[in-house]
Specification:
Elements: E1 7-17, E2 20-24, E3 32-35, H1 43-49, E4 57-62, E5 76-80, E6 95-99, E7 105-113, E8 117-121, E9 131-142, H2 145-150
Antiparallel strand pairs: 1-2, 1-3, 1-9, 4-9, 5-8, 6-7, 7-8
């Protein structure tokens, strides 16, 4: 079976930027489970997986435009510390997650830490970077009706919701 929209893909990956490993599913010991066509992956990686099958290995280099976008100047914003978990541990240069008022979260980089607020760069920490992925596709299957309705894959052994 080939990967494509509404297919569930289990994959192992290693992400490198500028020749340095950034993260890997191998470190967690479990593959990443993705429902394709539902915005779970950056566009370049999702496009690269299309039409591949279980057992395929891919080396994919993704330009910023198909990854986390180009860096935009003037994206520094002051945010009250209450919107960060563990705000007391934040230091300039750290990547962290900002809890949004309307729900959800956003990856940001700490620019400056003050007494009651944190200045953050709203650009994604990987914005402007070419992303190099080494991918091994473990499994491809049809997404279930429930997975498609929920917009994400349900890996084996995951609790229903």
């Amino acid at each position: 079976m080939k990967a494509g929209k509404d297919k569930v893909v289990a994959l192992h990956y290693t992400l490198s930027v500028d020749g340095e490993k950034v993260e890997s599913s191998h470190d967690r010991g479990e593959p990443l489970w993705i429902l394709l066509g539902h915005g779970q992956l950056i566009p370049g990686l999702e496009k690269a997986l299309d039409e591949h099958a279980a057992g395929d290995n891919l080396q994919v280099s993704i330009a910023p435009a198909d990854g986390y976008g180009e860096r935009e100047e003037g994206q520094i914003q002051r945010v009250p510390k209450k919107y960060f978990r563990d705000a007391k541990y934040l230091k300039p240069g750290m990547a962290t997650v900002l809890a949004l008022k309307e729900g959800g979260q956003r990856a940001v980089t700490v620019h400056k830490v003050g007494m009651s607020a944190v200045d953050v760069d709203l650009n994604h920490p990987m914005a402007g970077k070419t992303l190099d992925f080494d991918v091994n596709i473990q499994e491809v299957r049809d997404g279930t009706e429930e997975e498609i309705k929920h917009g994400h894959a349900h890996p084996p052994g995951s609790a229903a919701h």
